[in-house]
Design goal:
- The protein is an alpha+beta fold.
- α5 runs parallel beside α7.
């Protein structure tokens, strides 16, 4: 059965698209321009009740959280070396960073970006915005330490944890101008150089991608 991914360039759907490109999974891409009014409409909420991107269907089954989509695809359409089994010594580290990309970085960046956008529904207090940025700063400090002697997060090499964190780093840089240390910048550069990542970002303007050159 063909997977169908509803995708908007630059959003969290990049994670799912990148993963499937790495795996060579066949999928149907439904690209939508960002349109807040349409995403909030009854028409789109028939596709995704949350009114957000991503949304992925496997037949009639809907998954609408980017990390959950990644885990689903790896388990149902694997095996793949991007996934780490529970028997692997690095399993705990893998899970930590797979979810850190969203819960420890992207989620906070989204709040901060929404706040500075000026749109009323996304406004928070200045103190909470500072708190969100501090959480991201802590996560980046952990990543810096993790990458001191490694090209990727795991000793075994590139994995879905890097896809999760790689998108988070790109999102943070584009949306809030987050600056990275040479170690983290080099890591992001390695991720951006992967052919599958380039395919996943093929619909993003060149001037935006040049930020990571």
């Amino acid at each position: 059965m063909t997977l169908t991914l509803f995708h908007t360039p630059g959003t969290r759907s990049v994670r799912a698209r990148w993963l499937m490109e790495e795996m060579g999974v066949i999928y149907d891409l439904k690209t939508l321009e960002y349109d807040g009014a349409y995403f909030a409409s009854d028409e789109f909420r028939k596709i995704n009740p949350m009114g957000k991107i991503p949304a992925m269907y496997d037949g009639e089954t809907l998954i609408n959280e980017s990390i959950a989509i990644m885990q689903y695809v790896m388990e149902r359409y694997g095996p793949t070396e991007l996934n780490v089994p529970a028997t692997d010594p690095e399993f705990a580290t893998y899970l930590q960073w797979l979810h850190m990309g969203e819960s420890g970085v992207s989620g906070y960046i989204a709040v901060s970006f929404g706040h500075v956008s000026g749109e009323d529904p996304y406004q928070v207090s200045e103190k909470y915005d500072v708190y969100c940025r501090y959480q991201v700063e802590k996560a980046l400090g952990m990543l810096e330490a993790r990458l001191e002697r490694r090209e990727y997060i795991l000793d075994r090499g590139f994995s879905a944890a890097d896809i999760s964190m790689g998108y988070a780093l790109m999102f943070a840089a584009v949306c809030t101008g987050t600056a990275y240390t040479p170690t983290v910048s080099a890591y992001l550069g390695r991720l951006m150089g992967r052919p599958a990542m380039q395919r996943a970002l093929s619909d993003i303007p060149a001037e935006m991608l040049s930020m990571f050159a």
